[in-house]
Structures are given as structure tokens and as C-alpha cells.
Amino acid sequence: MSALRTERLLNLLIALLNTRYGLRRSELREKVYRDTTSSEVAFGRMFERDKSDLRQFGFDVETVMDQGWGSDDPATTRYRIGKESNRLPDVNLTSAECTVLILAAQLWEQAALGSAAQNAMRKLQAAGGLAEAELPAGVQPRIRPAGQAFEDLVTAMHAQHPVTFRYLAGSTGREELRTVEPWGLGSRFGQWYLVGLDRGRAAKRFFRLSRFTSAVTVQEKERYSPPPGFNVRKELDSLPELPVQSAIVDVASGKVLGLRKRATGAPIAGIPVEASDGGWDRLSVPFRDAEVLGEELASYGPNVTVVAPPELVTAVRRRLKAAADFAASPAPAIVFPDNPPAKRPRKRTSEDQLQRMLQLVPFLVHNQGLHISEVASSFGVTRKELEDDLRILICSGLPEGYPDDLLDIQWEDDHVYITQDLDLNRPVRFTVDEACALLTGLEALNGLPELAEGSALESVTVKLMAAAGEEGLKAASIAGPEVGPGNSAHLATIRQAITDGLQLRLKYFSAQRDSMSERDVDPLRLYSLDNTWYFEAYCHSARGLRNFRLDRIEALEPNGRRATEAAQPAGGFPVKLFTPNDDDALVIVELAPQGIGLADDYYAERTAPLPNGGLIAEIRFGSTGWLPMFVAQHGGAVRILAPQDLADAAGEWIDAALARYGG
Q1: What is the pTM of this model?
Q2: N or C: which end of the chain has fewer CB within 10 A?
Q3: Is 248 helix (H, G, I), strand (E, B) or coil?
Q4: In 393-453, which ranges are E strands?
Q5: How many CA atoms lie within 13 Å of 519's alpha carbon, on the beta-carbon side?
Q6: With contact defined as beta carbons under 8 Å apart, do 387 and 375 qualify?
């Protein structure tokens, strides 16, 4: 879509909005398209594509037929856009409702659907529906990004296109090519799932996104129809939770404190829970999913040996064997492109520009006289990009109209005013993505006690469902994770300390160091990734900013001292779960195709693609002692290339673990 096409679509939109009886195709061809060279068939295809594009932006082009003889003649068919049918209905929100809605929109700030949530909030702001709101002190829930596969699947699902991808089956460990009609995406048991029709098996199937081993390919030339009334949350609720089983594991004395905390005395029939030999303790650990526990136990390497059940032994050994095989395979050359970004931003397109301009006009109508830099900041673009938008807008208007029939915008003094809006003064109704982003976010907030107990969450959801219409019904195709913390008492204590400016004394378990510690901290803010909550604080022991997981806090209470001003949180959400330091180690790893998402999860500073679909990534680590655990946990998805001593340490760790299983 070129800039010329963007301008043409805008002029076509204005023409169809500002005609009472409709315009014939010949009139549009002459006045809007100024097309005198192409054939009627070629022009017809272009016009149909443009109508489809306008539909994607929320404008339904009506077809008006003349009554009587010759009413089915295409030459007499007229087209228009109803001025009310495409507009966002009035949504008046209270301050409490705005608070809830802003939190729901921020859930997606660093995740898929983030731009859709921002667009939806701008539309509400342009319509004058947002009231002044004060966010809860220090609370910033957010949803963990599910990677590029999530965004591709959302696009395919809303356009109703089938997809293909390679998938690693958990039951067999085999990688297979799947062709699926995507019906819905949702989070369950801490994992994102795709629900859809597996065409190869002619049956509904559930696919974990973490098991995708290739990019998602969208079959844009094919269409499908999802089941009527499909609701992905109901589908995921039908997934049975696996029964609790007992695993018998031998653990090196004094090691793996986190696992010991979960151990119980429930044995497996015929296998005693007792010391297996000198220096080892035999524990019984409850679990539901052998694959999930197997990933954790593999990371403990030679410090843990699984005794039973057999499927758990297989799961652990398979990961260790895959890690050893990957480490032994030929290493690629380490070559990074010159100055590449670690994560490339999505390229701005002309579709983005047109959608932005359609939001820009009503925004300016309701915010007259804003400084141009403030307008650009509101839309997340540079001043130059905004001025390019404005230049197209001031050249757009009614076909063959007078100067008064053009959009009239001035910004010579750096303050932007609009005096002629040509009926673009109200926001377009929500798109499916925008409705999904807000409604799914609101649903996810049900797990926060202070929000779920009030009426604002329910009332704002009802108002947005009414405003979204049919697009709101399609939001049932996405279900986000619950964002409520496992320990709401800790969350309440930390929130109160942040509000009162008090220090906290906590007893904390560090999984990386496999140790407990006590420390005094100045709490700064709370945030979450799905239902895993963290709080950012200045640690007086470490003399720096640190992030602590709430589920690893053993004890927590105010110590009676006021918080210092030693540090302040960075603006916006914490970008990383750790604070970079000058003495961090830069480690170069190779990621197999199924593990390329780790580059984003661990904030790779440089990446280079490999011919097999994998990546070379340079990642900063504050502590390297746990890297052998990292490699073993992701069995076959990651290996260390440099420094060599870290690669050797990981190899020795995995070999020692495999030796516990006889090879």
C-alpha cells in the first residue's frame, strides 16, 4: 500500500461519507481515482480492494440500487457510507471505571495487542469518554508477551485464514507439520494454547504455543468459518487438570532448597521415602504434569536423580540427552550484523498511517491547540511522521471540491488547530483487535481483589461490550491469563509500604543461588507477568535496584524505618527483570528454532539468524553460575558458544547428570 494509495483511500472515504444518495462507480472513477487509462475490469478490481481496506478500518460501504427497470445494472449502482453506522457510540465512564480500563489497556503495553489497546484508548479519549483517573499506587499488572506466533495467529484468526506450523508433540517428542483453522487463543495452567481444527486429523485440538518449532505461515488465499458462539475460555476450562501424582527423587544433601520446600511424605507404593545412600536424601514431590516437572528437574543436573515414575525419568533424560547432543553438534560461525537491534520493531506501513490519520482528526477536534510535539508523543510517532500525516490530510477532501471542501488544519506556530473536519470528527468504532485488547484485559483483572470486589470492573465491561457490538462478541476468541497474585497478603503489605514510604524486612529464597537471605529494602512498585508478581525495590544489602518474586518471599514485614531516597523506579514499566551492571557477563548462545523466543525473554543485545531457523544471540547475565541449569532446563533449545569456560561448565554439568541415569 503506497502513500498515493493511502491518499486515494482517504479521499474515497471522505467522498462516500459526504454523499447522501451515493456515487456511481463511473463518478468515483472520474472524480476520486482520476482513472482514464486502465480497463473497466482492472478498475473494478482496484475498487473492490479499496472497499475491503475501508471495511478493515471500520467503514462498511453500502450498495444502493435504483428501483425499477435496470436496477441490477452495475452502471446504475451507487455507493455510500452511513455517517452513523461506523461511528463509535458514546461511552461515558466514571473516574473509577477509567482507572480499571487504563489498567486493562496497560496489561498489553509490552505484549501482543499493545498497539490495539492504545488505539482503542485514543478513540475513547477523542470521543470525550475518559474522565480523570488515579491509578492504584505501585500496581502495574501486565501480560507476558507470547512471541511472534501469538501476533500471527491473532491476525489469521480475525481474518479467518488457516495457518501451518511445525509442532513438537509433548506425548511423543516428534516434530510434525500441522495445518490448523485457528478458532481461539487463551492461557491455561500458565501456558498459552491455540484451539482449532487440525485439518490433518479432522478434529479439534489444543496446541501449546511454547511447542511451536517454526514460524506461523498464514494461508491468505483460504478461508474458514469458526463454530458459531465459540468461546475459548469455555474450551480451555474443559481441559481436565491432570491428577496429582508423587515423584520420588534423590537429592544431594543440602542442595535444591526450593524443591525440598515442596516435598511431602506421600510415597509411591513399593518405593520407600528414605535416604538412598550417603550424601543423598530421598524425597517425595507432588506434581501433575511430567513434562513441566521434568523441565525443572533437568535444570538441577547431577544434584537430582529421578527414581519414579518412569515417564518422569524419560522426560528428564530426554532433555539432558537433547542438551548433550546439541552441545556436541558442529558450532556455527559467530557473526553478528553491523549494529542490528536485538529486536526489530515492526515496520510502519501505509495502513498504519491511514489508521492513525483517521484517529488524528477526531483527536485534534477535541484537543484544539495542542503543541505539535505533544500530538506526536500521543500517537507514538516522530514530529516528521506527524507532519507527513498532516500534509496528506490538508490535501484531502471532497472530489473536485472548492478550498472549503478540504480538511483545514494549521500548525504554523507549532500548535495544531483543525477548523474543517468533513465529518471525520468522531472516532471509528472499535476493530476486532481493539475490542479484544480491552475486553480481554478487563477479564484478566478479575483476579485482583481490590478491583474484582468493586462494581467498576463489571460496569465498564458492560459499557464497552455495548460500544463494541459484533466486534465485542468476537473477543471471546481470546482469553488472557489470570493476573491475581498467589499471595494477596504479601501484595497488600507491599502496596501499603509503597504508599506510606516504609522499608520492608524480607526473608527471600534465591533460586539461582539456591540459598535463603534476609535483607532490608525500599519498595518502589509492583508489577506482574501473567500471575507471577514481582516488586522492584532498592536493596540495602546489594546497594542497588533488585526485583523480587512474591512467591519466593518466606517472610515479610515493615522494619519500622522510613524508606530512603537511594533510588527511584525508571519511567513506565520495568523493561527488564534485572538491573544491568558494568560487571555483567556477555554470553553468546545458539538457539535452536524452538528456542528463539529466549532471545526476547532474556533481552538479547545482538542477534544473528541461522539458515536452519535458529539464532545466535548475545545476552547479558548478572550471574553465570546458574547457566548450566539454564542450558539443561531447555534441553536441546540452547547451548553456550562463548566464553568457552562457561560452555565447558555446562557440558560437564549435563554429562554428570546423564551419568546418574547410566549414560
Answers
A1: 0.68
A2: C
A3: strand
A4: 408-410, 415-420
A5: 22
A6: no
